[in-house]
Predict the structure.
Amino acid sequence: MSRRADSSETRPDPRQFRRSLQRWFRLRGRDLPWRRTRDPYAILVSEFMLQQTQVVTVLPYYQRWLKRFPDFAALARAKESEVLHAWQGLGYYARARNLHAAGKFVTENCGGEIPAHTAGIAQLPGVGRYTAGALASFAFDRPEPIVEANIARVLARLTNWQDTIDTTAGRAHLWRTAESLLPMTGARDHNSALMDLGAMICLPRTPHCGACPVRRFCRAVEPALLPRKKQRPATVCLRERHAFTRQRNHVLLEQSHLRWQGMWILPRLASTPRRRPLLELDFPFTHHRVTLAVFARPAPKIAHANQQWFSLRALDRLPVPSPHRRALVQLLPLPSGSRS
Ligand code: SF4
């Protein structure tokens, strides 16, 4: 017998399913700031920030971002260094660059207004099927399905999908199931409810099936084992060497053109010095565990073209990735504002 569930038999009855889900959502759904607005710009900002990042981390960034760049025009006018600085600490900086590019695209090509249909939204830089559907349903209440991590888990369990979900067939199954459950009106609340069900009840390791509003529609036999995913690559340990060079109230930094492109980091060292590092700290990066080792180095006579001296006061306004800012905070008497 195939391990794959027969999806035509395992999809719940859509109307009854939606009724149960909505009843629960009206009572228990999360009150999130991006759900209190219909402004497509604010919703797009939240969607970019929420990719790979938890709600609790995003909340303060979202509020600060909207104060600093309240609309597409303000974002389009900003310099890249300002955008990276506002994103600093959220990680995955390609999202910030894409959001900046989307701001310019909407301003230059769409008269400052985002298109209200998925085909138009999908033209924006960094916008894939999920984000286009999310924007169309959350901002315009269009009947568009969405599948992100929480919803994928719920749908795989509801249909007892035994194959891996991160394959072409697995993704197709999830999108088909999401479509089959979608209402023609009220997609905004429906998609939000599915997300909240995954975030609050149908949890990754310990689903709270006893409290689940759609339990009677669920076919999962061993829900904690679902969804299945392809094996991840093993974690690779890396050691990266950087220099700490200070002259009175100035520190030498280098503008990165690789990872953290455009941000300012401690200058790279080509070889390992014989002496001990001033400090070491670890941080994760995709499937890597990186050790940042920082060594004292005397001031060079001439700095490289991509290197520059900055006063300690100026560091607060610079986009510096979190691991390098943590190192600077430990090595320098920075003003309190620089420690965020
Ligand atoms: S019954 Fe359990 S596994 Fe099924 S959707 Fe609800 S919480 Fe998830």
Remarks:
- The longest helix spans residues 94-109.
- Residues 7-225 form a domain with the Endonuclease III; domain 1 fold (CATH 1.10.340.30).
- Strands lie at 236-244, 246-247, 250-255, 264-265, 279-285, 288-296, 307-311.
